[in-house]
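S.,

As promised, the FE2/S2 (inorganic) cluster run. Input:
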Amino acid sequence: MQIEFKVNGKSCSLDICPTMRLIDLLRDELGLTGTKEGCGEGECGACTVIIDGEAVNSCLVLAPQVRGKEIITVEGLAGDGELDSLQQKFIEHSAVECGFCTPGMLMSAKALLMKNPHPSEEEIRQALAGNLCRCSGYSKIIEAVKDVASLS
Ligand code: FES
Ligand code: FES
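Predicted complex:
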């Protein structure tokens, strides 16, 4: 089946299998391998992307469900050679260890900040509650997001 949608501001039209998952569409068809697959069943958040402003686990979405929608992946955060402020603060706070969870963390945090530029720590923790990190202990990630929230 043919579907049209936007990814990172670019229009896409693809002929896909109706049972394809969004994560496979992004990684295998579009080469956007920044989106990671951890559990494949909605538990880890590594595959988080933003669809029409909402953070969504792309392993749980079928590709036909994004028809007419606008997707942002981690590749869409940096623009014109400049890192997004979230990416910059993750670096400054050493909030990345192995990095596997990082794209999902960034996209969940970005979805929060798009809706609420000045979230409380509790709201940040709530927004990241579905994202698991095996390495960092979370505190540096929370501090990085808090730092961005205090910028503007
Ligand atoms: S890979 Fe999608 S939630 Fe874990
Ligand atoms: S930095 Fe390794 S899983 Fe989070």
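Helices lie at 22-29, 85-92, 102-115, 121-127, 139-149. The longest strand covers residues 2-7.

- D.
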